[in-house]
């Protein structure tokens, strides 16, 4: 009872403090809110919407079940998750956070994975997408395309390490039969069976895909705006500076510059803001900046973790294993960055100009910067048109149900 009351008091105090801060600093709150909104409707919404809609269609038409049967001999023995985990992993890497959580929850709702398998799967399918790592962080913040290679390797290899560790999660709770049989015939049979079981007409499947995807993106936008404001208010109230005092002690133990402590705290709440602030710190070794940014990219920030928590609440999966996995991922990514720095970056990549890097990594023009520039110019139009379509489809659905 005492613990419950204490929890209620803490939540109430936080809410009251937030409300008072919003009233006390309306201009700063509005600016932070606008910044979060701009990022969402210019980049996040238009870049994630196609992935979400296509994924919903693939699930509805049975393609994911087909992929799951094919990948079962790979995913089950390595990560102790069903073959459909391969689809979730690929979509998570391609589209970025929180796509891995969304598709994991979708698989759980489809009863294609168990609760424990879902908790394992979401732990290593949460990642930043290549567009953000290369285009926004490496080139946009550091103006260093070669640095993106270090970030990407550390990030994705770190996630594999997390998957290998989290395979032991719930070991005593489940017993799986590991299948090593690769059968295209069985995969096609599963594809056909899933399609036959789907009783919704094509129009409803497409409409459901649009509605589900946009509702998720609206939730993501709300969290982005909220944490952008919270991050700004914490800075104004000097709470960030207070927490940084403890972070400085930890950084000093690892010989990391204390100047990175405040940007690091900001990054714990919103990794984009933190990564940008870290790139702007002067008179600090690039290796130290890279290590801290790698940790933040892997940790994801409380904004993304809140988004994942909201998604996991739609199923019966627990949040704690995911949070533990984020810490593992952060430490793995930071460690891999340190290991790769001298042999890969200093000896091979540091002297590279953008012209000497292979064409697929020349980021000022192709492909990542081009995509970002396109989204910045046309993203708002895509977002508005998509929201109008969503309103029309949703209104029509409500009218037919009445």
TrEMBL record:
Pfam families named in the record: Gate
Annotated keywords: Membrane, Transmembrane, Transmembrane helix
Stretches assigned to the Nucleoside transporter/FeoB GTPase Gate domain: 42-141
This protein's record includes keyword Transmembrane helix: yes
Keyword Membrane: yes
Membrane-spanning parts: 47-71, 121-142, 205-227, 233-251, 290-312, 319-341, 371-395
InterPro entries membership: Gate_dom, Spore_IM_YlbJ
Name the record gives this protein: Sporulation integral membrane protein YlbJ
């Amino acid at each position: 009872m005492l613990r419950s009351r204490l929890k209620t008091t803490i939540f109430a105090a936080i809410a009251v403090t937030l409300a008072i801060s919003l009233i006390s600093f309306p201009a700063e709150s509005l600016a932070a809110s606008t910044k979060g909104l701009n990022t969402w409707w210019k980049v996040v919404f238009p870049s994630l919407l196609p992935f979400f809609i296509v994924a919903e269609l693939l699930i509805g038409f049975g393609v994911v079940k087909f992929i799951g049967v094919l990948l079962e001999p790979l995913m089950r023995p390595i990560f102790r998750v069903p073959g459909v985990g391969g689809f979730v992993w690929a979509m998570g890497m391609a589209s970025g956070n929180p796509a891995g959580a969304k598709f994991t929850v979708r698989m759980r709702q489809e009863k294609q994975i168990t609760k424990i398998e879902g908790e394992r799967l979401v732990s290593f399918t949460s990642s930043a997408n290549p567009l953000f790592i290369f285009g926004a962080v490496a080139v946009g913040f550091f103006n260093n395309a070669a640095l993106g290679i270090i970030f990407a390797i550390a990030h994705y290899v770190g996630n594999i390490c997390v998957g290998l560790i989290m395979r032991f999660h719930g070991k005593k709770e489940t017993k799986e039969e590991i299948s090593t049989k690769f059968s295209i015939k069985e995969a096609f049979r599963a594809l056909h069976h899933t399609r036959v079981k789907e009783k919704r007409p094509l129009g409803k499947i497409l409409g459901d895909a649009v509605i589900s995807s946009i509702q998720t993106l609206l939730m993501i936008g709300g969290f982005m705006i909220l944490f952008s404001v919270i991050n700004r208010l914490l800075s104004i109230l000097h709470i960030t500076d207070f927490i940084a005092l403890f972070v400085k002690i930890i950084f000093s133990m690892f010989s990391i510059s204390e100047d990175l402590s405040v940007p690091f705290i900001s990054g714990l709440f919103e990794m984009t803001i933190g990564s940008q602030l870290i790139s702007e710190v002067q008179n600090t070794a690039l290796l130290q900046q890279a290590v801290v940014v790698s940790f933040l990219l892997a940790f994801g920030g409380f904004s993304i973790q809140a988004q994942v928590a909201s998604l996991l609440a739609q199923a019966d999966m627990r949040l704690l294993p995911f949070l533990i996995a984020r810490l593992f991922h952060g430490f793995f990514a930071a460690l891999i960055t340190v290991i790769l720095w001298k042999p890969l970056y200093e000896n091979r990549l540091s002297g590279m100009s953008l012209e000497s890097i292979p064409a697929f990594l020349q980021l000022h023009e192709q492909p990542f910067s081009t995509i970002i520039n396109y989204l910045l110019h046309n993203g708002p139009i895509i977002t508005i048109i998509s929201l109008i379509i969503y309103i029309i489809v949703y209104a029509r659905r409500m009218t037919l149900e009445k």
